[in-house]
Design goal:
Blueprint (H helix, E strand, L loop, with lengths): L5 H10 L6 H9 L2 H4 L2 E6 L2 E6 L6 H8 L5 E8 L4 E10 L2 H11 L7 E4 L5 H10 L4 E5 L2 H13 L5 E4 L12 E6 L8 H5 L1 E12 L4 E10 L2 E7 L32 E5 L3 H5 L2 H10 L5 E6 L5 E6 L4 E5 L8 E6 L4 H14 L8 E6 L6 E4 L7 E3 L3
Parallel strand pairs: 5-6, 5-8, 6-7, 8-9
Antiparallel strand pairs: 1-2, 2-4, 3-4, 9-10, 10-11, 11-17, 12-16, 13-14, 14-15, 15-16, 17-18, 18-19
Helix pairs in contact: 1-2, 2-6, 10-11
Bound molecules: S-adenosylmethionine.
S-adenosylmethionine binds next to strand 4, helix 6 and strand 6.
Length: 389
């Protein structure tokens, strides 16, 4: 039976292991998600159909959706008409399991001062307020309309945290310092303002992510101007922090460039790309090696005969999925950056390092973005990769 109430959702989260703390169970039981998600979009046959709680026909479907452990899109880049939309999501209410994982990792205590980046619907701000008191919660959202709707929903259940409109990259200096900072939009490095605004002993939980891979990270204030910590092997892939209201993409990110297909380099490779594509820890290592390059990788061709990838610098590769008699797969690549060569180098390193899982990696983040880096096992292990991802 699908859940249709906050109590049932909380039960499911406890049973599934996402909620472990008593306070968080009570918060999920007592904060009504339906107040924050009066309508959402559901993908159907390539379109996004609006499911509206105010519609008598859709009411039951809406309620089931709201109390199911699913991310719910609440805003898209473009809308056809009032009920059907196309485009890319620009705001959503995150999946409750993911929210629970982050809130558990945040290790909140009553009275902690908390900054949330990416208010969205306000549901997470309500859960935070339940634990630390609304007067201790500051949440910032780029989109004024979303921030207004979130404020109203919060007020409807008697909560009045500070809802700010602005770019979360700069934090909220006038309300700092914060004991905890939680970001519900992903970043490719740790914005220096968050580190500056972190109280001594404070912690940050955020999704550190490039175009191909990333993961939640837990950082503590290691010194006055440095945050340090580890990646968490928890589910959760957030939409990137954006700078424009009409696009979910980061600045300069476009996937419609003309690829440099002159004089492709053809070769063979011993690497079977299909299992490589499906391996999260290998994708993660590959992300580290891309050194800030934006890549769409491991896209399958119709018929599943090839995998391909391309980067915003017009580089590309295509690799076959059927080996020849010698066990080798055909590769073609072009453009300035040799993308497939990077995949092969990563594959070899990943094996040499013992196929490290994401939880073996960590981050040292001084408040100067150019000095931030990811490490393996230990900050001084000798294996380090620069941020941004
Ligand atoms: C996954 S949603 C957040 C979900 C939200 N915490 C909730 O409980 O509904 C991500 C949000 O981050 C916002 N966002 C994106 N870029 C931002 C930025 N630069 N500054 C502040 N908010 C941003 C988006 O508009 C979107 O509402």
């Amino acid at each position: 039976m699908p859940s249709t109430s906050a109590l049932e959702l909380a039960d499911a989260l406890v049973t599934g292991g996402a909620v472990r703390s008593t306070w968080l169970r009570r918060a999920f039981e007592e904060i009504p998600r339906h107040v924050f998600v009066p309508r959402f979009f559901r993908s159907e046959a390539g379109c996004e159909v609006l499911i509206d709680g105010d519609s008598a026909e859709q009411h039951d479907e809406w309620l089931r959706g709201v109390y199911t452990d699913e991310a719910l899109t609440v805003q898209l880049t473009s809308t056809h008409d009032e009920t059907i939309a196309v485009g890319r999501p620009t705001s959503s209410s995150s999946a409750p399991t993911v929210m629970a994982g982050m809130l558990e990792a945040l290790d909140l205590e009553p009275g902690h001062r908390v900054l949330e980046i990416g208010t969205g619907t306000g549901y997470n701000a309500a859960l935070l307020s339940h634990r630390v008191g609304a007067a201790n919660v500051v949440t910032i959202e780029l989109d004024r309309g979303l921030a207004g709707a979130a404020s109203r929903a919060l007020a409807e259940i008697g909560l009045h945290p500070s809802v700010q409109v602005g770019d979360g990259n700069v934090g909220v200096p006038e309300s700092a310092p914060f004991d905890r900072i939680i970001a519900t939009a992903s970043v490719d490095h740790v914005p220096p303002a968050w580190i500056t605004q972190l109280a001594p002993g404070g912690a940050i939980v955020a999704d550190l992510r490039g175009s191909l891979s990333g993961s939640l990270v837990w950082l503590i204030a290691a010194a006055a101007d440095v945050a340090e910590g580890r990646f968490l092997d928890l589910p959760g892939a957030f939409m990137p922090m954006r700078t424009r209201l009409d696009s979910p993409l980061r600045d300069g990110e476009t996937w419609h460039q003309v690829l440099d297909q002159r004089n492709p380099q053809r070769a063979t490779t011993p690497v079977n790309a299909a299992p490589a594509a499906d391996c999260p820890s290998l994708r993660f290592l590959l992300q580290l090696h891309l050194a800030g390059r934006r890549v769409r990788g491991f896209l399958r061709s119709p018929g599943n005969t090839e995998l391909s990838g391309h980067a915003t610098d017009a580089s590309w590769f295509t690799v076959g999925l059927r080996a020849d008699d010698d066990g080798l797969f055909p590769v073609a690549q072009g453009g300035l950056g040799r993308l497939w060569d990077t995949v092969e180098a990563c594959w070899a390193l990943w094996h040499r390092l013992g196929q490290p899982g994401i939880e073996r990696f960590g981050v040292t983040a001084p408040d100067v973005a150019d000095l931030q880096y990811v490490w393996l096992d230990h900050p001084d292990s000798g294996y380090r990769w620069p941020l941004p991802l």
